[in-house]
Amino acid sequence: MKTPIRVAVTGAAGQIGYALLFRIASGAMFGPDQPVILQLIEAPVDKALKALEGVAMELDDCAFPLLKGIVQTSDPAVGFKDANWCLLVGAKPRGPGMERADLLKDNGKIFIGQGQIIDAVAAADARVAVVGNPANTNCMIAASQAKRLPPERFTAMVRLDQNRAQSQLAQKAGVDLTAVKDIFIYGNHSPTMFPAFAHATINGAPAAKVINDDAWLQGPFCETVGKRGAAIIAARGASSAASAANALVDHVRSLVTLGAIHSVAVKSNGHYGFDANVWAGMPVRTTTPGSYEVLTGYDLSDAFSQQKLAATNKELVEERAFVADMIK
After folding, report:
1. Tens digits of per-residue pLDDT, 65-106?
2. 242-255 and 15-26 helices cross at what angle (nearest 10)?
3. Which pTM value belongs to this model?
4. Which one, of 254, 7, 28, lies nearest residue 125 by Cα?
5. Rounded mean pLDDT of 129-152?
6. What is the DSSP string of 163-206?
7. Which of 189, 199, 251, 262 is catalytic?
8. To which H or E segment does residue 282 belong?
9. What letters, b where the CB count within 10 A reaches 16 and e where it falls short, cover 31-54?
10. CB 223 within 8 A of CB 245
11. Is 271 designated active site?
């Protein structure tokens, strides 16, 4: 049997955490032969810690053969200790009347602390995946605090947007979901992100030719994918949880699967015209478990793509400016 890997999860008793942990313990994230130890982190609040205790009981009661231990804590230094993967799910949600700049600064304090602790105590091969919104900038903030771990170890999740885009294309074309390939997400995990349909194929043919409706692709398609989270909140009275957890499983599973090509928000280093210091969604290929290379050969030179890239880059640059004084 393989050596267990340690997986730290923040916000572990929240809605996404509850939908996520059983998937990890069952083998869906790291594979059916990879044992795991779950290191569950919650806020130092009695209600949250009591809920976490109940989640741990349920994990025990599932009798997952791959689950080799559970740590419950409100101390990040304990929760991130020797972790191979740090899944940063928890974040402060945007409240009524809260400005985006205020949200960024409140979360900035959280992710500064987490970045420092992860860099100090996590395993030498630690990887970090950020889900808590605004995910791209929270990821950038956490990475800015790392001295030991390089920036490429820090990724943010745009896989939920990719999954949403794939589903929308399949439904529009009337084909099975698996017929849709190479739909990638560029930019921010926000309504400005760009699902670059020009790359996508449906049964091997260009998606734009199969669908043959540029007005839909440039309008309702992009808008539906970009605003899907708000639509779900309006419909169910709560934000995406199961689909977000599923996307995080996909995000990590693709990052540990050699040759997988998928959308990840990474330090842009200027690719596709993004500011070099923001974390932007783009296509990557997994090269070794946990490592990747950015795929830079996709043509995004048309006017519509350039407009969309410019808009999402502008938002990312503005977010970075909001927290610039915190990450010097």
Report:
1. 999 999 999 999 999 999 999 999 998 876 666 677 778 888
2. 40
3. 0.96
4. 7
5. 96
6. HHHHHHHHHHHT--GGGEE--EEEB-SSTT-EEETTT-EETTEE
7. 189
8. strand 279-288
9. eeebbbbbbbbbbeeeebeebbee
10. no
11. no
